[in-house]
Amino acid sequence: MDVYQIVTDRIISLLESGTVPWKKPWATSSGMPKNLISKKEYRGINTLLLGYQQYSSPYWVTYKQAVEKGGNVRKGEKSSLCVFWKLPSKQETGGTGETDQEVVTPVTPVTSEKQYSRSAPILKYYNLFNLEQCDGITSPTIEVPTYQFTPIEKAEQIISGMKDRPEISYGGNRASYSPISDRIRMPYEDRFEKNVEYYSVLFHEMGHATGHQSRLARKEVMEVNEFGSEAYGSEELIAELTSSMLCGVAGISNQTIDLAASYIDGWLNVIRKDKKAIVVAAARAQASADYILGKSFTEGES
Question: Can you tell me the distance from the alpha carbon of 43 to that of 47, in angstroms, rounded to the nearest whole number?
Fold first, then answer.
């Protein structure tokens, strides 16, 4: 389709001229993850362990704290890890006010009891539950901007027309696709300031879904790849180009192309490839877009 080439050429042109940094196009709850009782924000790696999960509430509690607040953790809910470093004492038992703590391992080899008690920090952890996993606890007011959402007919047709489309669920502050459950997760539509950006993000996740083993079976989706690796970056390029092509078919690419180019530019830098990497990814994205649109395709065909 000519629109595929037009979109690809426009993105390459933007990459060559320089692009603005990418930012999330949806509104969030503001916030860094924090403890409901102390109101203190979690820091370091905990911002990733807690902040990138599928919950819209930034508040977290231990099981004990939930009970003390007069609530409870719903049966079957899984806890999340929160870690911290602590200098141990000989009588160390993990009693720091949080529950479910235990010693994992000393950072450095311990050669004496004196060294152990004074200088060998120990990585410890405790288990947390998001407020959305609990019942009977009143949440502090969380102000999240919402916007008027108006469906775009052509884009909706593309979404509904995908054969064997994965399930799409809504909520939280992340957009993601899980190949294990074959499920797309999206923020609510009214969290997007611009309607077109909602479709751009959803098309991106649908692009990932085409790599599932039951569809195009891309190894970048079927295999576990470390965040920031070349394989991970390659799959992000394919998904974002798929989204750009679908936006072109839906007639909304003029309003999403800058967002796409800035996102793609970031991943090209991560995988340390020159701008030609986009041409390779574009060929694979064409197969992905064709699959979603129900057209015949040949993998790798340009």
Answer: 6
